[in-house]
Specification:
binds nicotinamide-adenine-dinucleotide, Aldehyde Dehydrogenase, Chain A, domain 1, globular, 16 helices, seven-stranded parallel β-sheet, alpha/beta, about 475 residues, Aldehyde Dehydrogenase, Chain A, domain 2
Length: about 475
Protein backbone atom coordinates (compact mmCIF):
# COMPACT_ATOMS: atom_id res chain seq x y z
CA UNK A 1 0.00 0.00 0.00
CA UNK A 2 1.32 3.44 -0.92
CA UNK A 3 1.32 5.95 1.93
CA UNK A 4 0.42 9.53 1.01
CA UNK A 5 2.86 11.39 3.27
CA UNK A 6 1.57 14.82 2.23
CA UNK A 7 -1.99 13.90 3.06
CA UNK A 8 -1.01 12.56 6.49
CA UNK A 9 1.07 15.67 7.21
CA UNK A 10 -1.77 17.97 6.27
CA UNK A 11 -4.20 16.02 8.47
CA UNK A 12 -1.81 16.13 11.42
CA UNK A 13 -1.36 19.88 10.93
CA UNK A 14 -5.15 20.35 10.83
CA UNK A 15 -5.54 18.48 14.13
CA UNK A 16 -2.72 20.48 15.75
CA UNK A 17 -4.28 23.74 14.55
CA UNK A 18 -7.61 22.77 16.04
CA UNK A 19 -6.05 21.79 19.36
CA UNK A 20 -4.25 25.14 19.46
CA UNK A 21 -7.47 27.00 18.79
CA UNK A 22 -9.06 25.06 21.61
CA UNK A 23 -12.03 24.20 19.45
CA UNK A 24 -14.15 21.10 19.24
CA UNK A 25 -11.41 18.52 18.69
CA UNK A 26 -11.49 16.99 22.17
CA UNK A 27 -15.20 17.51 22.76
CA UNK A 28 -16.64 15.05 20.30
CA UNK A 29 -18.63 13.02 22.80
CA UNK A 30 -21.67 10.92 22.14
CA UNK A 31 -24.43 13.08 23.65
CA UNK A 32 -22.30 13.89 26.69
CA UNK A 33 -20.62 10.47 26.94
CA UNK A 34 -16.83 10.47 26.37
CA UNK A 35 -14.17 7.81 26.07
CA UNK A 36 -11.80 9.42 28.56
CA UNK A 37 -12.27 11.52 31.67
CA UNK A 38 -9.92 14.15 30.31
CA UNK A 39 -12.10 14.58 27.21
CA UNK A 40 -15.24 14.74 29.36
CA UNK A 41 -13.84 17.41 31.69
CA UNK A 42 -12.43 19.49 28.82
CA UNK A 43 -15.77 19.38 27.04
CA UNK A 44 -17.62 20.42 30.20
CA UNK A 45 -15.15 23.24 30.73
CA UNK A 46 -15.72 24.63 27.23
CA UNK A 47 -19.50 24.26 27.72
CA UNK A 48 -19.44 26.06 31.05
CA UNK A 49 -17.50 29.01 29.64
CA UNK A 50 -20.05 29.33 26.85
CA UNK A 51 -22.86 29.01 29.41
CA UNK A 52 -21.60 32.13 31.23
CA UNK A 53 -23.05 34.30 28.48
CA UNK A 54 -26.52 32.73 28.71
CA UNK A 55 -29.29 34.53 30.61
CA UNK A 56 -31.07 33.48 33.79
CA UNK A 57 -34.16 32.92 31.63
CA UNK A 58 -32.09 30.46 29.56
CA UNK A 59 -31.01 28.65 32.71
CA UNK A 60 -34.65 28.44 33.84
CA UNK A 61 -35.57 27.04 30.44
CA UNK A 62 -32.85 24.38 30.60
CA UNK A 63 -33.93 23.36 34.10
CA UNK A 64 -37.46 22.94 32.77
CA UNK A 65 -36.05 20.85 29.90
CA UNK A 66 -34.44 18.51 32.46
CA UNK A 67 -37.72 18.19 34.36
CA UNK A 68 -39.72 17.56 31.16
CA UNK A 69 -37.23 15.01 29.82
CA UNK A 70 -37.33 12.98 33.02
CA UNK A 71 -41.12 13.22 33.25
CA UNK A 72 -41.66 12.12 29.65
CA UNK A 73 -43.56 8.90 30.26
CA UNK A 74 -41.36 6.63 28.14
CA UNK A 75 -38.15 7.95 29.77
CA UNK A 76 -39.55 7.77 33.29
CA UNK A 77 -40.83 4.23 32.90
CA UNK A 78 -37.72 3.00 31.12
CA UNK A 79 -35.33 4.51 33.69
CA UNK A 80 -37.31 3.28 36.66
CA UNK A 81 -37.31 -0.31 35.39
CA UNK A 82 -33.73 -0.18 34.10
CA UNK A 83 -32.41 1.04 37.47
CA UNK A 84 -34.00 -1.96 39.21
CA UNK A 85 -32.82 -4.41 36.54
CA UNK A 86 -29.26 -3.13 36.42
CA UNK A 87 -28.53 -2.56 40.11
CA UNK A 88 -30.75 -5.40 41.40
CA UNK A 89 -31.95 -2.93 44.04
CA UNK A 90 -35.28 -1.33 44.85
CA UNK A 91 -38.64 -1.61 43.15
CA UNK A 92 -40.15 -0.10 40.00
CA UNK A 93 -43.07 1.81 41.56
CA UNK A 94 -40.76 3.48 44.11
CA UNK A 95 -38.22 4.41 41.43
CA UNK A 96 -41.09 6.02 39.50
CA UNK A 97 -42.02 8.00 42.61
CA UNK A 98 -38.43 8.98 43.40
CA UNK A 99 -37.56 10.05 39.83
CA UNK A 100 -40.78 12.07 39.65
CA UNK A 101 -40.00 13.67 42.99
CA UNK A 102 -36.47 14.63 41.91
CA UNK A 103 -37.76 16.10 38.64
CA UNK A 104 -40.57 18.11 40.18
CA UNK A 105 -39.32 19.25 43.59
CA UNK A 106 -35.60 20.01 43.13
CA UNK A 107 -35.27 23.81 43.25
CA UNK A 108 -34.17 25.75 40.17
CA UNK A 109 -32.97 29.35 39.69
CA UNK A 110 -35.45 30.70 42.27
CA UNK A 111 -33.07 29.28 44.88
CA UNK A 112 -30.41 31.88 44.01
CA UNK A 113 -31.66 34.93 45.87
CA UNK A 114 -29.47 38.03 45.56
CA UNK A 115 -28.61 40.03 48.68
CA UNK A 116 -28.55 43.79 48.22
CA UNK A 117 -27.13 46.38 50.61
CA UNK A 118 -27.70 50.03 49.78
CA UNK A 119 -26.68 53.17 51.63
CA UNK A 120 -24.62 56.37 51.57
CA UNK A 121 -21.75 54.59 49.85
CA UNK A 122 -23.86 53.17 47.02
CA UNK A 123 -25.06 49.67 46.27
CA UNK A 124 -23.54 46.28 46.94
CA UNK A 125 -24.84 43.01 45.58
CA UNK A 126 -23.96 39.56 46.81
CA UNK A 127 -24.84 37.04 44.14
CA UNK A 128 -24.62 33.31 43.68
CA UNK A 129 -22.16 32.66 40.90
CA UNK A 130 -21.12 29.34 39.32
CA UNK A 131 -18.15 27.31 40.52
CA UNK A 132 -17.37 26.17 36.98
CA UNK A 133 -17.08 22.45 36.32
CA UNK A 134 -18.35 20.26 39.15
CA UNK A 135 -17.41 16.60 39.55
CA UNK A 136 -20.35 14.67 40.98
CA UNK A 137 -20.08 11.09 42.22
CA UNK A 138 -23.39 9.21 42.39
CA UNK A 139 -24.53 6.06 44.24
CA UNK A 140 -26.13 2.78 43.15
CA UNK A 141 -29.02 3.29 45.53
CA UNK A 142 -30.48 6.40 43.83
CA UNK A 143 -28.61 6.40 40.52
CA UNK A 144 -30.92 8.47 38.31
CA UNK A 145 -32.53 10.47 41.12
CA UNK A 146 -29.14 11.88 42.13
CA UNK A 147 -28.24 12.79 38.54
CA UNK A 148 -31.61 14.54 38.17
CA UNK A 149 -31.44 16.66 41.31
CA UNK A 150 -27.73 17.44 40.90
CA UNK A 151 -28.21 18.43 37.23
CA UNK A 152 -31.13 20.73 38.06
CA UNK A 153 -29.27 22.46 40.90
CA UNK A 154 -25.94 22.70 39.08
CA UNK A 155 -27.30 23.97 35.76
CA UNK A 156 -29.51 26.45 37.64
CA UNK A 157 -26.35 27.70 39.37
CA UNK A 158 -24.57 28.15 36.02
CA UNK A 159 -22.20 25.19 36.36
CA UNK A 160 -21.41 22.27 34.07
CA UNK A 161 -21.21 18.81 35.64
CA UNK A 162 -19.12 15.71 35.07
CA UNK A 163 -20.81 12.67 36.56
CA UNK A 164 -18.97 9.67 37.91
CA UNK A 165 -21.68 7.07 38.35
CA UNK A 166 -21.30 3.80 40.21
CA UNK A 167 -20.14 1.18 37.66
CA UNK A 168 -23.12 -0.99 38.62
CA UNK A 169 -25.50 1.77 37.51
CA UNK A 170 -23.66 2.65 34.31
CA UNK A 171 -26.31 1.74 31.73
CA UNK A 172 -29.21 3.64 33.23
CA UNK A 173 -27.06 6.68 34.08
CA UNK A 174 -25.67 6.89 30.55
CA UNK A 175 -29.21 6.57 29.17
CA UNK A 176 -30.33 9.54 31.26
CA UNK A 177 -27.27 11.67 30.45
CA UNK A 178 -27.76 11.08 26.71
CA UNK A 179 -31.47 11.89 26.95
CA UNK A 180 -30.71 15.12 28.82
CA UNK A 181 -28.04 16.13 26.29
CA UNK A 182 -30.34 15.47 23.37
CA UNK A 183 -33.11 17.58 24.89
CA UNK A 184 -30.78 20.39 26.02
CA UNK A 185 -29.28 20.59 22.54
CA UNK A 186 -32.75 20.94 21.01
CA UNK A 187 -33.48 23.72 23.51
CA UNK A 188 -30.36 25.63 22.44
CA UNK A 189 -28.05 24.92 25.39
CA UNK A 190 -24.31 24.66 24.80
CA UNK A 191 -23.26 21.04 24.15
CA UNK A 192 -21.81 19.05 27.05
CA UNK A 193 -23.12 20.84 30.14
CA UNK A 194 -23.78 17.36 31.57
CA UNK A 195 -21.14 14.75 30.76
CA UNK A 196 -19.71 11.43 31.83
CA UNK A 197 -17.47 8.61 30.57
CA UNK A 198 -18.48 5.46 28.71
CA UNK A 199 -16.79 3.22 31.29
CA UNK A 200 -17.18 4.55 34.83
CA UNK A 201 -14.58 3.14 37.22
CA UNK A 202 -12.69 4.02 40.38
CA UNK A 203 -9.73 5.06 38.17
CA UNK A 204 -11.95 7.42 36.20
CA UNK A 205 -13.42 8.85 39.42
CA UNK A 206 -9.89 9.46 40.68
CA UNK A 207 -8.92 11.11 37.38
CA UNK A 208 -11.98 13.35 37.67
CA UNK A 209 -11.20 14.33 41.26
CA UNK A 210 -7.61 15.23 40.34
CA UNK A 211 -8.42 17.09 37.12
CA UNK A 212 -7.35 20.73 37.44
CA UNK A 213 -10.42 21.97 35.56
CA UNK A 214 -12.80 20.41 38.11
CA UNK A 215 -13.38 23.17 40.66
CA UNK A 216 -15.74 21.46 43.08
CA UNK A 217 -16.59 17.89 44.07
CA UNK A 218 -19.92 16.52 45.25
CA UNK A 219 -19.94 12.95 46.58
CA UNK A 220 -23.19 11.16 47.30
CA UNK A 221 -22.28 7.77 48.72
CA UNK A 222 -20.74 5.84 51.57
CA UNK A 223 -18.00 6.89 54.02
CA UNK A 224 -15.04 5.97 51.75
CA UNK A 225 -15.94 8.28 48.90
CA UNK A 226 -16.96 11.12 51.22
CA UNK A 227 -13.59 10.89 52.97
CA UNK A 228 -11.80 10.83 49.62
CA UNK A 229 -13.44 14.02 48.30
CA UNK A 230 -12.90 15.80 51.60
CA UNK A 231 -9.18 14.99 51.36
CA UNK A 232 -8.93 16.21 47.76
CA UNK A 233 -7.82 19.76 48.48
CA UNK A 234 -10.81 21.06 46.49
CA UNK A 235 -14.08 22.54 47.65
CA UNK A 236 -16.16 19.45 48.36
CA UNK A 237 -19.66 18.54 49.46
CA UNK A 238 -19.94 15.19 51.23
CA UNK A 239 -23.34 13.52 51.38
CA UNK A 240 -22.60 10.37 53.32
CA UNK A 241 -24.09 7.39 55.08
CA UNK A 242 -26.80 7.44 57.71
CA UNK A 243 -28.33 4.98 60.17
CA UNK A 244 -31.62 6.74 60.99
CA UNK A 245 -33.23 5.76 64.29
CA UNK A 246 -36.92 6.23 65.03
CA UNK A 247 -38.02 6.81 68.62
CA UNK A 248 -41.59 6.10 69.74
CA UNK A 249 -42.72 7.20 73.18
CA UNK A 250 -45.84 6.52 75.25
CA UNK A 251 -47.55 9.77 74.18
CA UNK A 252 -47.45 8.98 70.45
CA UNK A 253 -50.39 8.01 68.24
CA UNK A 254 -49.18 4.41 68.16
CA UNK A 255 -51.35 3.19 65.27
CA UNK A 256 -50.15 6.04 63.06
CA UNK A 257 -46.54 5.69 64.23
CA UNK A 258 -46.60 1.99 63.31
CA UNK A 259 -47.99 2.60 59.86
CA UNK A 260 -45.61 5.55 59.18
CA UNK A 261 -42.60 3.50 60.28
CA UNK A 262 -43.49 0.53 58.06
CA UNK A 263 -44.18 2.86 55.10
CA UNK A 264 -40.92 4.80 55.56
CA UNK A 265 -38.78 1.72 56.14
CA UNK A 266 -40.15 -0.15 53.12
CA UNK A 267 -39.93 2.82 50.70
CA UNK A 268 -37.87 1.51 47.76
CA UNK A 269 -36.98 -1.50 49.92
CA UNK A 270 -35.18 0.76 52.42
CA UNK A 271 -32.63 2.13 49.91
CA UNK A 272 -32.99 5.84 50.79
CA UNK A 273 -30.27 6.91 53.19
CA UNK A 274 -33.01 8.66 55.20
CA UNK A 275 -35.18 5.53 55.68
CA UNK A 276 -35.94 4.14 59.16
CA UNK A 277 -33.18 1.68 60.12
CA UNK A 278 -34.01 0.85 63.76
CA UNK A 279 -36.92 1.49 66.13
CA UNK A 280 -36.40 2.44 69.76
CA UNK A 281 -39.66 2.06 71.65
CA UNK A 282 -40.63 2.87 75.21
CA UNK A 283 -41.40 -0.38 77.05
CA UNK A 284 -45.00 0.51 77.97
CA UNK A 285 -46.11 0.82 74.31
CA UNK A 286 -43.65 -1.58 72.61
CA UNK A 287 -46.09 -4.54 72.40
CA UNK A 288 -48.88 -2.39 71.01
CA UNK A 289 -46.48 -0.78 68.51
CA UNK A 290 -45.28 -4.20 67.27
CA UNK A 291 -48.89 -5.42 67.05
CA UNK A 292 -49.75 -2.41 64.87
CA UNK A 293 -46.63 -2.70 62.75
CA UNK A 294 -47.71 -6.26 61.97
CA UNK A 295 -51.15 -4.93 60.99
CA UNK A 296 -49.38 -2.52 58.62
CA UNK A 297 -47.40 -5.26 56.83
CA UNK A 298 -44.51 -6.21 59.15
CA UNK A 299 -43.48 -9.85 59.55
CA UNK A 300 -42.08 -10.59 63.00
CA UNK A 301 -39.23 -13.04 63.53
CA UNK A 302 -39.12 -14.37 67.08
CA UNK A 303 -36.88 -17.40 66.88
CA UNK A 304 -33.36 -16.40 68.05
CA UNK A 305 -31.63 -18.99 65.85
CA UNK A 306 -33.53 -17.76 62.81
CA UNK A 307 -32.56 -14.16 63.56
CA UNK A 308 -28.91 -15.23 63.78
CA UNK A 309 -29.30 -17.10 60.49
CA UNK A 310 -30.65 -13.88 58.96
CA UNK A 311 -27.60 -11.96 60.21
CA UNK A 312 -25.37 -14.53 58.49
CA UNK A 313 -27.49 -14.43 55.34
CA UNK A 314 -27.56 -10.67 54.76
CA UNK A 315 -24.34 -9.34 56.33
CA UNK A 316 -20.63 -9.95 56.10
CA UNK A 317 -20.00 -11.13 59.68
CA UNK A 318 -22.40 -8.54 61.04
CA UNK A 319 -20.18 -5.69 59.85
CA UNK A 320 -21.51 -4.73 56.42
CA UNK A 321 -24.59 -5.58 54.38
CA UNK A 322 -24.07 -8.08 51.57
CA UNK A 323 -24.58 -6.20 48.31
CA UNK A 324 -26.79 -8.94 46.87
CA UNK A 325 -29.38 -8.25 49.61
CA UNK A 326 -29.26 -4.43 49.56
CA UNK A 327 -32.58 -3.05 48.30
CA UNK A 328 -34.25 -6.47 48.08
CA UNK A 329 -37.87 -6.88 49.18
CA UNK A 330 -38.94 -8.43 52.49
CA UNK A 331 -40.60 -11.49 50.82
CA UNK A 332 -37.40 -12.11 48.80
CA UNK A 333 -35.22 -12.00 51.93
CA UNK A 334 -37.65 -14.23 53.85
CA UNK A 335 -37.68 -16.74 51.01
CA UNK A 336 -33.86 -16.95 51.09
CA UNK A 337 -34.21 -17.56 54.81
CA UNK A 338 -36.50 -20.49 54.03
CA UNK A 339 -39.78 -18.75 54.87
CA UNK A 340 -42.58 -18.47 52.32
CA UNK A 341 -44.30 -15.23 53.26
CA UNK A 342 -47.18 -13.31 51.79
CA UNK A 343 -46.00 -11.13 48.90
CA UNK A 344 -47.52 -8.12 50.64
CA UNK A 345 -45.10 -8.30 53.57
CA UNK A 346 -43.29 -4.97 53.66
CA UNK A 347 -40.69 -5.26 56.42
CA UNK A 348 -39.14 -7.93 58.62
CA UNK A 349 -39.06 -6.97 62.29
CA UNK A 350 -37.54 -8.55 65.38
CA UNK A 351 -36.75 -7.48 68.92
CA UNK A 352 -33.06 -6.81 69.47
CA UNK A 353 -30.55 -5.36 71.89
CA UNK A 354 -28.70 -2.13 71.15
CA UNK A 355 -25.49 -4.01 70.31
CA UNK A 356 -27.16 -6.16 67.64
CA UNK A 357 -25.66 -5.73 64.12
CA UNK A 358 -29.11 -4.91 62.71
CA UNK A 359 -29.22 -1.89 65.05
CA UNK A 360 -25.63 -0.81 64.52
CA UNK A 361 -25.10 -1.36 60.77
CA UNK A 362 -26.70 0.61 57.93
CA UNK A 363 -28.37 -2.31 56.09
CA UNK A 364 -30.40 -0.62 53.32
CA UNK A 365 -32.91 -3.46 53.20
CA UNK A 366 -36.34 -3.77 54.87
CA UNK A 367 -35.12 -5.37 58.10
CA UNK A 368 -36.10 -3.35 61.13
CA UNK A 369 -35.02 -4.21 64.68
CA UNK A 370 -37.10 -2.93 67.61
CA UNK A 371 -35.25 -2.12 70.82
CA UNK A 372 -37.21 -1.72 74.08
CA UNK A 373 -36.14 0.92 76.57
CA UNK A 374 -37.45 1.96 79.95
CA UNK A 375 -38.42 5.55 79.14
CA UNK A 376 -38.22 8.28 76.53
CA UNK A 377 -34.99 9.79 77.87
CA UNK A 378 -33.23 6.44 77.54
CA UNK A 379 -34.69 6.13 74.02
CA UNK A 380 -33.30 9.51 72.98
CA UNK A 381 -29.85 8.72 74.41
CA UNK A 382 -29.79 5.40 72.54
CA UNK A 383 -30.93 7.04 69.29
CA UNK A 384 -28.02 9.48 69.55
CA UNK A 385 -25.58 6.58 70.07
CA UNK A 386 -26.81 4.39 67.20
CA UNK A 387 -26.95 7.31 64.75
CA UNK A 388 -23.15 7.21 65.13
CA UNK A 389 -22.70 10.97 64.74
CA UNK A 390 -23.56 10.80 61.03
CA UNK A 391 -25.79 13.86 61.55
CA UNK A 392 -28.01 12.44 58.85
CA UNK A 393 -31.67 11.68 59.68
CA UNK A 394 -33.81 10.73 62.68
CA UNK A 395 -37.51 10.37 63.39
CA UNK A 396 -39.58 10.66 66.54
CA UNK A 397 -43.23 9.85 67.22
CA UNK A 398 -44.44 11.71 70.30
CA UNK A 399 -46.93 14.33 71.45
CA UNK A 400 -44.58 15.61 74.11
CA UNK A 401 -43.14 18.85 72.75
CA UNK A 402 -40.40 18.97 75.38
CA UNK A 403 -39.12 15.52 74.44
CA UNK A 404 -39.38 16.24 70.70
CA UNK A 405 -37.28 19.35 71.29
CA UNK A 406 -34.82 17.46 73.47
CA UNK A 407 -34.21 14.82 70.81
CA UNK A 408 -33.88 17.42 68.05
CA UNK A 409 -31.22 19.25 70.06
CA UNK A 410 -29.26 16.18 71.11
CA UNK A 411 -29.24 14.23 67.86
CA UNK A 412 -28.22 17.13 65.56
CA UNK A 413 -29.28 15.35 62.39
CA UNK A 414 -29.71 17.22 59.09
CA UNK A 415 -33.28 15.92 58.87
CA UNK A 416 -35.46 15.39 61.93
CA UNK A 417 -38.99 14.20 61.16
CA UNK A 418 -41.62 14.47 63.90
CA UNK A 419 -44.73 12.28 63.64
CA UNK A 420 -44.29 11.22 60.05
CA UNK A 421 -42.48 8.73 57.82
CA UNK A 422 -38.85 9.46 56.92
CA UNK A 423 -39.72 10.50 53.37
CA UNK A 424 -41.67 13.50 54.72
CA UNK A 425 -38.14 14.87 55.23
CA UNK A 426 -37.53 14.98 51.46
CA UNK A 427 -40.84 16.57 50.61
CA UNK A 428 -43.21 13.60 50.30
CA UNK A 429 -46.12 14.50 52.58
CA UNK A 430 -43.92 17.03 54.40
CA UNK A 431 -43.27 20.66 53.55
CA UNK A 432 -40.21 21.71 51.61
CA UNK A 433 -38.20 20.88 48.51
CA UNK A 434 -36.38 17.66 47.71
CA UNK A 435 -32.85 16.48 47.14
CA UNK A 436 -31.10 13.14 46.93
CA UNK A 437 -27.80 14.66 48.08
CA UNK A 438 -28.12 15.34 51.79
CA UNK A 439 -24.89 16.82 53.03
CA UNK A 440 -24.59 16.25 56.78
CA UNK A 441 -20.79 16.07 57.17
CA UNK A 442 -20.12 19.32 55.26
CA UNK A 443 -23.23 21.13 56.46
CA UNK A 444 -25.02 22.19 53.26
CA UNK A 445 -27.95 20.05 54.43
CA UNK A 446 -30.52 19.45 51.73
CA UNK A 447 -28.46 20.60 48.77
CA UNK A 448 -29.99 22.87 46.12
CA UNK A 449 -28.78 25.31 43.45
CA UNK A 450 -27.17 27.66 45.97
CA UNK A 451 -25.08 24.82 47.42
CA UNK A 452 -23.38 24.60 44.01
CA UNK A 453 -22.64 28.32 43.74
CA UNK A 454 -20.06 30.75 45.04
CA UNK A 455 -21.01 33.98 46.78
CA UNK A 456 -19.51 36.96 44.98
CA UNK A 457 -19.74 40.61 45.89
CA UNK A 458 -20.23 43.45 43.42
CA UNK A 459 -19.80 46.98 44.80
CA UNK A 460 -21.03 50.11 43.03
CA UNK A 461 -19.66 53.17 44.82
CA UNK A 462 -22.07 56.10 45.05
CA UNK A 463 -25.60 56.42 43.70
CA UNK A 464 -28.45 53.96 43.33
CA UNK A 465 -29.67 54.71 46.84
CA UNK A 466 -33.22 56.04 46.44
CA UNK A 467 -34.03 56.75 50.10
P1 LIG B 1 -20.70 3.65 47.54
O1 LIG B 1 -19.96 4.48 48.53
O2 LIG B 1 -20.33 2.24 47.37
O3 LIG B 1 -20.58 4.33 46.10
C1 LIG B 1 -20.89 5.69 45.87
C2 LIG B 1 -20.08 6.22 44.71
O4 LIG B 1 -18.73 6.36 45.09
C3 LIG B 1 -20.06 5.31 43.50
O5 LIG B 1 -20.10 6.09 42.32
C4 LIG B 1 -18.75 4.57 43.63
O6 LIG B 1 -18.29 4.12 42.38
C5 LIG B 1 -17.87 5.64 44.23
N1 LIG B 1 -16.78 5.15 45.06
C6 LIG B 1 -16.90 4.43 46.21
N2 LIG B 1 -15.68 4.24 46.77
C7 LIG B 1 -14.80 4.85 45.95
C8 LIG B 1 -13.38 5.01 45.97
N3 LIG B 1 -12.63 4.49 46.96
N4 LIG B 1 -12.78 5.69 44.96
C9 LIG B 1 -13.51 6.22 43.96
N5 LIG B 1 -14.85 6.09 43.88
C10 LIG B 1 -15.48 5.43 44.86
O7 LIG B 1 -22.24 3.81 47.91
P2 LIG B 1 -23.51 3.06 47.32
O8 LIG B 1 -23.59 1.68 47.86
O9 LIG B 1 -23.61 3.26 45.86
O10 LIG B 1 -24.62 3.96 48.01
C11 LIG B 1 -25.04 3.75 49.33
C12 LIG B 1 -24.35 4.62 50.34
O11 LIG B 1 -24.50 5.97 49.99
C13 LIG B 1 -25.01 4.49 51.71
O12 LIG B 1 -24.04 4.56 52.71
C14 LIG B 1 -25.97 5.64 51.77
O13 LIG B 1 -26.31 6.07 53.05
C15 LIG B 1 -25.16 6.69 51.04
N6 LIG B 1 -26.03 7.70 50.44
C16 LIG B 1 -26.06 8.92 51.01
C17 LIG B 1 -26.89 9.89 50.47
C18 LIG B 1 -26.96 11.26 51.08
O14 LIG B 1 -27.63 12.11 50.49
N7 LIG B 1 -26.33 11.52 52.20
C19 LIG B 1 -27.69 9.60 49.37
C20 LIG B 1 -27.62 8.32 48.81
C21 LIG B 1 -26.78 7.38 49.35
Amino acid sequence: MKVDVDLIQSLVQKVLDQVEEGNEISTAGDLGVFQTMDEAVNAADIAQRKYLSYSMADRAKFVQVIRDTVLKRENLEYMSQAAVDETGMGAYEFKLAKNTLAATKSPGIEDLVTEAISGDDGLTLVEYSPFGVIGAITPTTNPTETVICNSIGMLAAGDAVVFSPHPRAKGVTLFLIRALNRALKEAGAPDNLIVTVAEPSIENTNAMMQHPKVRMLVATGGPAIVKTVLSSGKKAIGAGAGNPPVVVDETADIEKAASDIVAGCSFDNNLPCIAEKEVIAVESIADYLIFNMKKSGAYELKDKALIEKLVELVTNEGKKPKTEFVGKSAPYILEKLGIQADKDVKVIIMEAEESHPFVQVELMMPILPVVRVENVDAAIDMAVRVEHGNRHTAMMHSRNVDKLTKMAKLIQTTIFVKNGPSYAGIGVGGMGYTTFTIAGPTGEGLTSAKSFARKRKCVLVGGFDVR
